[in-house]
Amino acid sequence: MSFQKAAWPRRLRSQEWYGGESRDAIYHRSWMKNQGLPADLFDGRPVVGICNTWSELTPCNAHLRDLAERVKHGIYEAGGLPVEFPVFSPGEPSLRPTAMMYRNLCAMDVEEALRANPLDGVVLLAGCDKTTPALLMGAASVDIPAILVSGGPMLNGWFRGERVGSGTALWQMSEDIKAGKMSRADFLEAEQSMSRSPGSCNTMGTASTMASMAEALGMALSGNAAIPAVDSRRRVMAHLTGRRIVDMVKDDLKPSDILTREAFENAIRTNGAIGGSTNAVIHLLAIARRVGIELTLDDWDRCGRDIPTIVDLMPSGRFLMEEFFYAGGLPVVLKMLLEGGKLHGDALTVSGATMAEEIAEVRNWNEEVIRPVERALTQQGGIAVLCGNLAPNGAVLKPSAASPHLMQHRGPAVVFEDIDHYKARIEDESLDIDENSVMVLKNCGPRGYPGMAEVGNMGLPPKVLRKGITDMVRISDARMSGTAYGTVILHTAPEAAVGGPLAIVEDGDMIEVDVAARRIHLDVPEETIRARLAAWAPTVKEPGSGFARLFHLHVGGADTGADFDFLIGSRGHEVPRESH
Ligand code: FES
């Protein structure tokens, strides 16, 4: 830990707006005072933004205004001036074509809002999948003191005595309908039980994974990830976060002090231990590049390869976030990693203490939910990164959510040119497909869909499901919901829409997958592959205008985080000139 606290008191950034008696200073202060703010709040104390992704169109974040009030209590109490502001909120359940298309837009919004306004620090309020990485990306590029507080997960869903996991139950039930194991009436009844409180998905889906990543990176207070949204301790966490950011501003503890290579390695290993979402791969790659760390898919494979998945949560396991919290939450996992020699204990956190100091006193209260390593869900957690002629820049698979008998597989491809082709074909009883086939979906990567939708866990064909088969090898350049499961190979790079080899796979081509060897291979003669690639032409049209055009022209590959090329890196907090 090499962080040196800045001297205090000192002149803060916000005083460039509010300090002094010039016409401009009066201009900046007097308009703010129309909100009923006393004059002494502009006396040089830390001005702290509360960057809020609250939106009724992002139901997982619909309770964040309440938490913002709690953050304000903490900021005032510690002697700061809180100012809440909204940013674009990419909500997973409703945004089309996919919320991922708007992660970078949200990150831009955050970055510009932080830089352009008189802010000395920021509390990031996030919850739904894309909001957490977007806020961390934006804050990292500005590099003023920043701390994240999550909205927290929903309470457990229950239906007829069984836990209902957000997303996971939906995918399972829709397969049961196709297989004739569940009635539509029961499905509609189950819908009422899925989302029974405010909060984000209650499985170890992308939202809970990214909340865990924020905590493992050291960007949130210890214990933040798992507290249910409606538990009073979530409000306490928000309050304490508000208190803490004021001291972070005084100390000048910035994202670049916390987001080190060691912090990212901690997060990757944590993702393996919690059986976290494959989406964390893309988001961590993008966040790392915002602070100049060249994190790669190789880092994911290297750091995650020998990490057992010890958290028994859906979609990989049995329980939900509520039980994870009662068992002790993420600090227990971090402590087990530390004791196993798999965590950089000296990594700095937003509290000012090291990771090891933060978790020294924690205890596991339920070894069914957070299992001892000997009873791990799988000894090979983490994310497997596969490479080969079908994915020269890599593809990912989550072993804890896959079927052991399919980890080594050879089968003929059944190709879907895009998601519409898949939808049109999958229920066709004459489709030449069985459980040995390899389902291949093209043109669903960042540029192809556009936005890289969560469609990689293609539902199986009804005629296979009716045989009682529940898993097949599936390959695509898409993503998969963190709540989903199966032997699903994702993020194949380069994507089909830019001419990656996935684009030239044809029905009947043999494909070999060997997860232990980290290999994915299209068993077609090399000259045939070369000839097909030479004849390939793009099918995805370039949008003529608007954000869709910006996205198309500038989005990067999944293997580097799918950030915009012009947003990679940190641009700091300097503003070029005075406003008047
Ligand atoms: Fe928003 Fe899952 S859909 S957290």
Can you give a write-up of this model?
This protein is of the alpha/beta class. The protein folds into 3 domains: 15-155 and 199-261 and 275-298, Response regulator (Rossmann fold), CATH 3.40.50; 157-191, no CATH class; 384-540, Glucose Oxidase, domain 1 (3-Layer(bba) Sandwich). Helix content is 33%, strand content 13%. The chain has 20 helices and 14 strands. It has helices at residues 15-18, 23-32, 64-77, 103-116, 131-142, 168-178, 184-191, 206-217, 232-251, 255-258, 261-274, 279-290, 297-304, 321-327, 330-339, 355-358, 419-425, 462-465, 526-535, 546-554, and strands at residues 47-52, 81-86, 121-126, 146-150, 157-159, 162-164, 384-388, 391-397, 408-416, 438-441, 473-476, 488-493, 510-514, 519-522. The strands form 3 sheets. An 8-stranded mixed sheet has the order 7-8-12-11-10-9-13-14. The chain has a 4-stranded parallel sheet with strand order 2-1-3-4, with helices on both faces. The protein has a two-stranded antiparallel sheet with strand order 5-6. The longest helix has 20 residues, at 232-251. The mean pLDDT is 96. Residues 60, 92-93, 128-129, 166, 200-201, 205, 207 line the site of FE2/S2 (inorganic) cluster (FES).
Key terms:
580 residues, alpha/beta, Rossmann fold, Glucose Oxidase, domain 1, four-stranded parallel sheet, 33% helix
Sum this structure up briefly.
With 580 residues, the chain is α/β, with parallel strands linked by helices.
The first-level CATH class of the largest domain is given as: Alpha Beta
Q: Into which percent range does the helicity of residues fall? A: 25-40%
Helix and strand composition category: alpha/beta
Strand content: 5-15%
The main sheet comes to: 8 strands, mixed
The CATH homologous superfamily of the largest domain is called Response regulator
CATH architecture of the largest domain: 3-Layer(aba) Sandwich
What is the number of independent domains? 3
Query: Stretches where pLDDT falls below 50 for ≥5 residues?
Result: none
Q: In total, how many beta strands?
A: 14
The DSSP helix count reads: 20
Could you say which small molecules are bound to this protein?
A: FE2/S2 (inorganic) cluster
Strand order of the largest sheet: 7-8-12-11-10-9-13-14
Measured distance between first and last alpha carbons: 42 Å
Mean pLDDT equals 96
CATH topology of the largest domain: Rossmann fold
